[in-house]
Amino acid sequence: MTTHPYLRAYLAGVLVPTLILPLGLVAFVVVRLCLAAPFPVERAAVFPLALIPAVWGLWNVLWLGTRPATHLSVGAHGAVLPLLLLPAGTLIATQLGVLELGATHVTWFQAIHVPYALIAAAFAAVLAMYYLVWKYIVGFVNRTLDVA
Residue 121: is its pLDDT beyond 60? Predict the structure, then answer.
């Protein structure tokens, strides 16, 4: 199958977040409606649900296009993505008033305070998770769709 490799790469990249993000939506709905959270969770949920699958698909297309020049593995390429998503998400969240940056902590919805040390540890875990998901799941789908 040699036709439309970039379309197949896009579809392979979109698969994982399209399957996982509805679970996040369910968690947001439970927090907001069932647990009666006093902050508007849906303001933070809608944008990532719409954007993340497209970003993953385009990132996989970029990997396919740059692979001959960079020789990067799909796992390493996927692990770079959070390094772009975190600053972009932080910028968007601060502009929308969802996130406030303090000297020692971040405040979400003017109610939840998270220290930077916890964010750094979580970010390291996210980097490792992205590497593994891209290496094993996206890589598998790429091979199945004859992208890689």
Answer: yes
